[in-house]
Amino acid sequence: MFSQKIELFNSIEYNKRVLFIIWILVLSKCLILEYYIKDLTLPINSPFFIWSLSLLLTSLASYLFSKQSQTLQIFQDGKLKIRVLVNICIFLLLVILNSTNLLFSYFNWSNLMAINFALLGIYFLLNGWLKVDKWKFISGSYLLLSSIFISQCDFLGVYLYSSFVLIILAIHLIVDLIYYRHTSINTE
To answer: Fewer Cβ close by (within 10 Å): the C or N end of the chain?
Structure first.
């Protein structure tokens, strides 16, 4: 089931993976800083100075990359269309869940973060299954397992533990990126 196929090196795929790792590391940095701001009760406006600026600059970098590499022309085969639809559904579910929780406060902070990590794990599991990629499958299993532990954390512990989970995920994805670079065939 998880035999790795040798594939052609695709610089767009490589750059998308690097960009995803950058997003994970930026989110991890924001969570660590938020932990210390809350724990030490520092008088810093973290929604603006930490979250907004970091996410805005990372979004700008993502936009510039997608514009430069023209990654919007991705519908090539049926399996890819299914992956894109699944990814869009998971993203919309994340946005709707977090938006409604912001307005109505259904979940406490640890349960909300656990659900977010579980949805990210489902994303990795489904993409690993559809692409027959053992690395994504391992990442998805790791995130689903971690979401159980995140749901048991106290308020401040969620920030620190979530950051730790994201750093471990980034290390795993960097190893996957190196593996992809070494096992793919470069046609240049």
So the answer is: C
pLDDT of residue 1: 43
Q: Read off the tokens for 4.
A: 């790795």
pLDDT tens digits along 126-139: 888 887 888 888 88
C-alpha to C-alpha distance for 88 and 52, rounded to whole angstroms = 23
Query: pLDDT of 101-115, one tens digit each?
Result: 888 888 888 899 999
Tell me which residue of 92, 138, 91, 141 sits closest to 118, measured CA to CA. 141
**pTM for this structure?**
0.82
Query: Which amino acid is located at 171 in the chain?
Result: I
Structural tokens at position 182: 């070494």
In sequence order, the β-bridge partners of residue 8 are 185
